[in-house]
From TrEMBL:
Keyword terms: Cytoplasm, Metal-binding, Methylation, Phosphoprotein, Transferase, Ubl conjugation, Ubl conjugation pathway, Zinc, Zinc-finger
Recorded metabolic or biological pathway in which this protein acts: Protein modification; protein ubiquitination
Enzyme Commission identifier(s): 2.3.2.27
Record flagged with keyword Phosphoprotein: yes
SUBUNIT field: Component of the KPC complex composed of RNF123/KPC1 and UBAC1/KPC2. Interacts with UBAC1 and CDKN1B via its N-terminal domain. Interacts with RIGI (via N-terminus) and IFIH1 (via N-terminus).
Stored InterPro entries: B30.2/SPRY (IPR001870), B30.2/SPRY_sf (IPR043136), ConA-like_dom_sf (IPR013320), RNF123/RKP/RSPRY1 (IPR045129), SPRY_dom (IPR003877), SPRY_RNF123 (IPR035773), TPR_RNF123/RKP (IPR057987), Znf_RING (IPR001841)
Catalytic function, reaction form: S-ubiquitinyl-[E2 ubiquitin-conjugating enzyme]-L-cysteine + [acceptor protein]-L-lysine = [E2 ubiquitin-conjugating enzyme]-L-cysteine + N(6)-ubiquitinyl-[acceptor protein]-L-lysine
Upper classification of the organism: Eukaryota, Metazoa, Chordata, Craniata, Vertebrata
GO molecular function: ubiquitin protein ligase activity; zinc ion binding
Recorded superkingdom: Eukaryota
B30.2/SPRY domain: residues covered: 9-189
Protein known as: E3 ubiquitin-protein ligase RNF123
Length: 1187
């Protein structure tokens, strides 16, 4: 591509070679990349494709029209914001105004479904990637019209300005990363020609006539044979013609090809003449093998045409097929797609042609070839013929208590059952037609992975491997815009073909990650950067894998990383700087991928290697230099003469398995990387259709219930409800057919098995890499990411059409993944913060559902205990919130008032939400609770450190929450936007509640930690617990305080903030410490003697706050002699919220009541707030403040 910066639009300084009436400009017609553009754009080499690279870029063509009827086509590659149409030379565009925003420019915008000419109105239909827009201008009538996929959208503009000095150029304005391709006539018109309109570029009429005539001669010769004995010509079926025939025929063909070959270098002639001729050969049906004529013709091309001629011909032919496949309309039998795939398969069966296409950078690189593995999803159901395939629609109408649809509800009516079965039959008809396309796509991949075609050089598989790796590198570096050029959601599905990958073990051996045979670019490893690992683990590589890193390489990598080390202040780049699921930052060396630092580490590193066998004597060292990916040979991959190829450097712990086709290991590894880069993201995007069906089904059911309840006298309301019912039903008819397509192409049973296969590959790979000890650090992070994402996809994306429970070995696989999460979420060999957070989140999700929680309980006891020990590590200096949430989920369902699936206070204040799903059903684990109890009971030091850290975090979280609600009130009084503040406030409240629940869990399971004062820290822990509980109660139960005010406001974002969640958690703790018969007096004494204790808090908790006749009604108030009673909320101690501020700390000047600071100084000399060492405490009186 060429990149051009913005300039004012001006008339191009070109000499006009075409004098056709009504048109001015050079031939061929292209985009004006010299002066006719505004903004930053990427323009393709053929000057017909363009990608926006700034806010709103504009560009026009080199040719204009002033008379007659003209048309051009635009192939939509992305469906974002674009304005396509016509403009005059006088139009001036900028980064805000484009085509259609000036007086003499006119545009159609299918993204917003509008037309533009200074003002804008609704017009047309929405477009999608893969659509074709035809732009028509009639300068005789003064009208402009647009067509979408051949269907006229109606006249958009009338009475446009015409006359002397007025001419219109094709033009487009597009936003960042939007892309299109123009066809001004350099190629034959699409399947949507418009009668009466001429293309801006003249078709090569003379060459067309000549090519058709020569092709007719060739066809006649192929259908003719010579009877030498009778000396006469005989007719025969041209399909049976073979190259090895009569010399006279070959000589005649050679003369014809002298004239025919030069014509086949022109794209128009290749697409209009040659491609249609070859497609005609396959029209008879049958398998591609039944049409050998195409193979014979390709032999003939290579024999009678110059290499550059056949190369250009094949290049243009394949590009035309790619374009036709992608932009052809979807029809019920997918006839167009099948037609083009059959011809592609036939061409790729020719060995020499296949290898040329694989080697050609512009023709069949993976970036473009994956288009053949993409089935365009129709956005317009009617045009795709889905109404014919699926005449009866159906959607779920019965929902369980969690809001999920039931697959086969027992109370389904007979009519609903008939509709559902008719819908399922229609889905099966659609599935069978899509399977034909998928089978052709698999055949293409098998041809590309052929490793037996070595008669004409390197086998196709090894060429494809290099292309595939380069494709992955470009995607990982965000260079290729993969989502715009080739949506890859099907790539992983077609590469995973059991018949192709049967010889390969279902894992990637760990030596692949450090022997330099496979390029991982600069993707993050579990242990950090590869250069760092090679320096720190060189002894482990030598001892475990018989690999010795060349000292010169270590020195080179150290020098190469010197700048980065100085910037980061360490030997490693900050880990987790970029998530592996997204695009990596583009490195500066990417303009020359073969010279980058990552390639030097992995591909040109000189390493000394020992044979991985284990003889009794010292093994002989063999020094091998690995090559760059582009330079690798079959021997480098497969190995020979003692060289193990990709399996080089087998660690001692890895069993010695024989792999016949080692190249398949790299393919499997590439599939994993492909899924990590884009496939999982693409899978998730299509779930929105299923969600929309669910939402509309709920809305329709609710509307029907309202119609049934509507009184007959309210005809106006009934009319509006019936209109809504009709809209919802029409939308559901459309969405249910779209969902059928998506379920057949993306969320099918076969695709589910493919993703499950990928999950098993990642699990086995991680297990084998883990067995290597320290060498586990070399494994790329993406394997753990894919394992977690694949499980998430199986659980969330494929249901309810397909159930994960039906997969073979489902429970065993769940258990294996549970063991990985339990072991590695706290694995010290993993250093990246992003992957550690992902593991923690995955484990938190795992313990939230009954089936996956049971899988955690099935892992070996030693691993379960180790997991619980890691979860009970002190909360300081680590991301403790997720850890705490995991413990809460293990407890939820056992605590006091903790069995709800929806927050009870919301059901009271917002009854309309009662039918909506909320929290997951409680599924506590008694087994893991028992392990926790045993650990805390036996290890007194761990119990003390864990509980002190929980109490510290509770103190912090609740203090932050109180501070936040004060800021919320201030911001509301000042009418400020405080949405972010509300989110932080709600988070602090949720953290406080969850920490209280963990304390309740601990008190319930191991009460002796607090109540058995023979334990060293029991008394201190009980006093700290009592202090915090009193502080929480005082702040929450005080009348007309800030907490009450915020709760009563019911602000959006603070729905979870209420008295109920936090008070039941406190009550659960109080009940547990006060019901132990032997020690109840001890706990009561500590609670009552705490300086923060307020009787009204207990009365409020018992519902007796306003009742003076209760058992505590006449009790005198308990006060603290050290602390005067507060006069206003601002004077409250920020620690206990019970007494006035009465002490100021030195030297930091923070304040609290004397009771809190005296309690704190018994154990710690650091300030509550700033951690400064307290050197003194002085009395504080608010009256001393200055005015």
């Amino acid at each position: 591509m060429e990149k051009y910066r913005g300039a004012n639009l001006s008339f191009p300084n070109t000499s006009y070679s075409d004098q056709t009436e009504g048109r001015l400009g050079p031939q061929p017609v292209v985009l004006d990349h010299t002066s006719g553009f505004e903004g930053l754009l990427f323009v393709d080499d053929d000057l017909l494709g363009v990608i926006g690279h700034s806010n709103f870029s504009s560009i026009r063509a080199t040719t204009c029209v002033y008379k007659g009827k003209w048309a051009y086509e635009v192939l939509i590659s992305s469906q974002g914001l674009m304005q396509i149409g016509w403009c005059t030379l006088s139009c001036r565009f900028n980064q805000e105004e484009g085509v259609g925003d000036t007086p003499d420019s006119y545009a159609y915008d299918g993204n917003r479904v509008r037309k533009w000419n200074v003002t804008t109105t609704n017009y047309g239909k929405s477009w999608a990637a893969g659509d074709i827009v035809s732009c028509l201008i009639d300068l005789d009538e003064g009208t402009i019209t647009f067509c979408l996929n051949g269907q006229s959208l109606g006249t958009a503009f009338t009475s446009i300005k015409t006359g002397p000095g007025v001419a219109y150029f094709p033009a487009i304005s597009l936003s960042f990363k939007e892309s299109v391709a123009f066809n001004f006539g350099s190629r034959p018109c699409s399947t949507y020609p418009v009668e009466g309109y001429l293309p801006l570029q003249n078709p090569p009429a003379a060459d067309l006539m000549k090519a058709h005539r020569l092709l007719g001669y060739i066809r006649n010769i192929l259908s003719t044979s010579i009877d030498i004995q009778e000396e006469r010509l005989l007719e025969r079926d041209c399909a049976l013609w073979k190259l090895h025939g009569e010399p006279t025929v070959l000589i005649t063909l050679a003369h014809i090809f002298n004239h025919f070959a030069p014509l086949m270098c022109k794209v128009y002639l290749v697409e209009d003449v040659l491609m249609n001729f070859l497609l005609g050969i396959l029209e008879g049906g049958g398998s591609v093998d039944e049409h050998p004529l195409i193979q014979q013709l390709l032999h003939l091309f290579w024999l009678l045409m110059e290499d550059y001629e056949v190369n250009e011909c094949l290049k243009q032919l394949m590009m035309s097929l790619l374009r036709a496949y992608r932009f052809s309309p979807i029809i019920p039998d997918l006839g167009f797609q099948i037609h083009y795939l059959r011809l592609t398969t036939a061409i790729l069966r020719h060995e020499k042609s296949r290898k040329y296409l694989l080697n050609n950078e512009l023709t069949f690189d993976v970036l473009r070839s994956v288009v053949f593995f993409y089935i365009k999803t129709p956005l317009r159901v009617k045009e795709a013929g889905l109404e014919e395939l699926i005449p009866t629609t159906w959607w779920p109408t019965h929902f369980d208590k969690e809001g999920k649809d039931e697959r086969e509800p027992k109370d389904e009516s007979a009519d609903e059952r008939l509709r559902r079965r008719a819908y399922e039959r229609g889905c099966q008809r659609l599935k069978k037609r899509i399977e034909v396309v998928e089978e052709l796509q698999v055949q293409i991949l098998r041809l590309l992975l052929n490793n037996k075609d070595k008669t004409t050089g390197e086998a196709s598989r090894y060429i494809f491997l290099n292309k595939f790796r380069k494709f992955l590198q470009e995607n990982a570096s965000n260079r290729g815009h993969p989502t715009a050029l080739c949506p890859p959601e099907y790539m992983v599905c077609f590469l995973i073909d059991s018949s192709v990958l049967t010889p390969c073990r279902r894992l990637c051996p760990p030596q692949l990650f450090y022997n330099g045979k496979v390029d991982y670019f600069d993707l993050q490893r579990l242990g950090g950067l590869l250069s760092h690992l090679k320096k720190t683990l060189k002894d482990d590589l030598a001892g475990k894998a018989n690999i010795i890193i060349d000292p010169a390489e270590i020195q080179a990598t150290s020098m190469d990383d010197l700048d980065e080390d100085e910037e980061s202040g360490a030997a490693q780049r900050p880990f987790g700087a970029a998530a592996m699921g997204g695009a990596l930052a583009r490195p500066s060396w990417l303009s020359s991928p073969t010279l980058g630092r990552a390639n030097r580490f992995l591909s040109t590193a000189a390493v000394s290697l020992m044979t991985p066998r284990r003889p009794l004597t010292q093994p002989e060292k063999v020094k091998v230099r690995t090559l760059a990916v582009e330079q690798r040979t079959e021997e480098d991959i497969e190995g020979s003469h003692g060289n193990d190829g990709l399996l080089l450097g087998r660690p001692l712990e890895e069993p010695d398995h024989v792999v016949a086709d080692k190249s398949l290991l790299e393919i499997v590894d590439g599939i994993v990387m492909m899924y990590n880069l884009s496939v999982h993201q693409q899978l998730g995007k299509m779930v929105v259709v299923s969600d929309d069906v669910h939402e509309y089904a709920v809305a329709l059911k609710d509307t029907e219930e309202k119609i049934a309840r509507c009184p007959a006298r309210r005809a106006d309301i009934l009319d509006e409800l019936q209109k809504s019912q009709k809209v919802f039903a029409e939308k559901l008819n459309h969405l249910s057919r779209r969902l059928a397509w998506i379920n057949a192409t993306i969320y099918s049973k076969e695709k589910m098995m493919d993703v499950y296969w990928l999950l098993c590959v990642c699990i086995r790979t991680i297990e084998h890499a883990d067995n290597t000890g320290s060498l586990f650090a070399f494994a790329p992070e993406l394997y753990l990411n894919v394992a977690m994402n694949a499980y998430s996809a199986l659980k969330n994306y494929f249901s309810p059409a397909n159930s994960m429970e039906e997969l073979p070995g489902y429970e065993e696989t769940l258990t294996q993944l549970a063991a990985i999460l339990a072991k590695h979420f706290a694995d010290p060999r993993i250093v990246g913060t992003d992957i550690k957070d992902s593991l923690m989140q995955a484990l938190a999700s795992y313990v939230c559902y009954p089936q996956s929680l049971r899988a955690v309980e099935r892992i070996p006891e030693e691993q379960r205990v180790a997991m619980m020990r890691n979860l009970l590590a002190p909360y300081e200096q680590r991301p403790w919130a997720q850890t705490n949430w995991i413990l809460v989920r293990l407890w939820r369902g056992c605590g006091f008032g903790y069995r709800y699936t929806r927050l009870p206070h919301l059901l009271k204040t917002k009854p309309e939400d009662a039918n909506l799903p909320s929290l997951q059903k409680p599924c506590p684990s008694l087994l893991l609770q028992r392990h926790m109890a045993e650990l805390l009971s036996l290890d007194k030091d761990m119990a003390a450190s864990f509980l002190n850290s929980v109490l510290n975090q509770l103190n912090w979280a609740f203090s932050e929450f109180i501070g936040m609600i004060q800021e919320v009130i201030v911001s509301l009084d000042g009418c400020l936007n405080c949405s972010q503040l509300l989110n932080v406030c709600a988070t602090c409240f949720d953290l406080s509640v969850s920490l209280l629940r963990v304390l309740e869990m601990t008190v319930t399971l191991v009460p002796e930690i607090f109540l058995d004062w023979s334990r060293p820290s029991a008394e201190l822990l009980l006093r700290r617990l009592a202090q915090l509980l009193n502080q929480v109660l005082n702040r929450v139960t005080a009348e007309k305080n800030l907490f009450d005010r915020v709760v009563n406001l019911r602000l959006p974002g603070l729905e979870s903030v209420d008295h109920y969640p936090i008070l039941v958690a406190v009550t659960g703790i109080l009940v547990r410490i006060l019901v132990d018969g032997d020690r109840v007096s001890r706990a009561s004494s500590v609670l009552l003697s705490d300086p923060c204790f307020q009787l009204h808090s207990i009365q409020h908790l018992l519902g007796e706050a306003g009742d003076s006749s209760g058992s505590f009604g006449h009790a005198p108030p308990i006060t603290c002699s050290l602390c005067p009673q507060p006069t206003s909320e601002e004077d409250l101690c920020p620690i206990c919220y019970a007494h006035s501020i009465s002490a100021i700390f030195k030297p930091c000047s923070h304040k609290s009541c004397k009771a809190c600071i005296n309690q704190h100084l018994m154990n710690n000399k650091d300030c509550f707030f700033c951690k400064a060492t307290i050197t003194g405490v002085e009395d504080y009186s608010p009256t001393t403040s200055t005015f």
